[in-house]
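Tip: read the tokens left to right.
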């Protein structure tokens, strides 16, 4: 029969072993999580900003269109480049003259006027439709409802880029 002193000692050893095993498991889990998040974060960029750029000889026309039609502002401009931003500064678009000697060959060919569209989400697509139509901007796709719930219309900028102006249905 085990005496009381020995019973207390065995209980203390059992608790100590449980504590050591628990700490070891926690450290292993922490290490595994840390190793996973480090390898995952190596492939993720912590901060990123995206702006679309169009290579076009129509710098002045593009600038005038986006200022007049959507109220874009000019962030930066020189003789061969213009960077513009949406009124709320959430997005930017840039225009670059083709074949400019300051640019690498990748950025020389002009946009071929096809195959690109932008989507501009607005709170009230009906009001935008009336406002843009009143400006005399040709409407390429009349205001319509889609089976998936979008209400939108479309126009084209001077470069032939389709611009889908939309209000998404809230779900």
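Filled-in amino acids:
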């Amino acid at each position: 029969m085990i005496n009381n002193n020995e019973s207390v000692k065995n209980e203390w050893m059992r608790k100590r072993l449980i504590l050591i095993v628990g700490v070891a498991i926690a450290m292993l889990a922490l290490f595994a999580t840390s190793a996973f998040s480090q390898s995952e974060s190596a492939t993720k960029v912590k901060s990123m900003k995206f702006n679309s750029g169009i290579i076009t000889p129509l710098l002045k026309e593009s600038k005038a269109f986006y200022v007049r039609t959507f109220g874009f502002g000019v962030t930066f401009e020189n003789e061969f480049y213009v960077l513009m931003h949406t009124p709320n500064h959430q997005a930017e678009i840039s225009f670059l003259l083709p074949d400019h000697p300051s640019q690498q060959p990748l950025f020389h060919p002009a946009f071929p006027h096809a195959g690109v569209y932008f989507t501009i989400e607005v709170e009230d697509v009906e009001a935008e439709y009336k406002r843009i139509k009143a400006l005399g901007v040709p409407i390429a796709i009349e205001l319509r409802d889609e089976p998936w719930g979008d209400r939108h219309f479309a126009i084209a900028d001077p470069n032939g880029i389709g611009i889908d102006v939309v209000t998404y249905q809230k779900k």
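The longest strand covers residues 151-156. Helices lie at 4-42, 59-70, 125-134.
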